[in-house]
Amino acid sequence: MIVLYDGDCGVCRVSVALLLRWDRSGSLEPVTLQSERAARLLIGMNEATRMASSHVVLADGRILSGAAAAPEVLKSLPGGRALAAIARRLPRTTGRFYRAVAGNRDRIGPLLPPRVGDWARRELKRHHMRGPTRAT
């Protein structure tokens, strides 16, 4: 599963780095929204929509955005099936939570300790260096 995120956003980097750490099987592949690959994967999606939230591309080619992606991502992670079921059963709550974080990421980011941001950058760099896990 390809996870597309804003590479310029500290909250986004930390969130994706945490998911990657949780993903012991290596099923998630991080790709920044600013990359040419993201533009190819999200062809037809205008830039404002692309940058407004994170997105995932599933193995079958479906694209899910924002809170709608949460159940799919969670169920792919060890022990995440119960959280995925909750997110699926409570889509409005999941959406509110996602919008609250995404809508305030410019305020939340500066509150993150620098060492957390540095850790996230290292974690993402390590995964980006592996390269794509499947051709897209």
Q: Can you put this structure into words, describing what you see?
A:
The chain is of the alpha+beta class. It has eight helices and four strands. The protein has a four-stranded mixed sheet with strand order 2-1-3-4. Strand 1 (2-5), helix 1 (10-22) and strand 2 form a beta-alpha-beta unit. The mean pLDDT is 91.
Descriptive tags:
single chain; four-stranded mixed beta sheet; alpha+beta; 136 residues; 10% strand
Q: N-to-C SSE series?
A: EHEHHEEHHHHH
Poorly predicted sequence stretches spanning 5 or more consecutive residues: none
Structural category is alpha+beta
Strand content: 5-15%
Rg computed from alpha carbons, rounded to a whole number of angstroms: 14 Å
| Total count of strands | 4
On the 0 to 100 scale, the average pLDDT is 91
Give the neighbour order of strands across the main sheet. 2-1-3-4
- Helical content class: 40-55%
Q: Give the termini separation.
A: 11 Å
The biggest beta sheet reads:
4 strands, mixed
Question: Assembly state here?
Answer: single chain
**Inertia-based shape:** globular
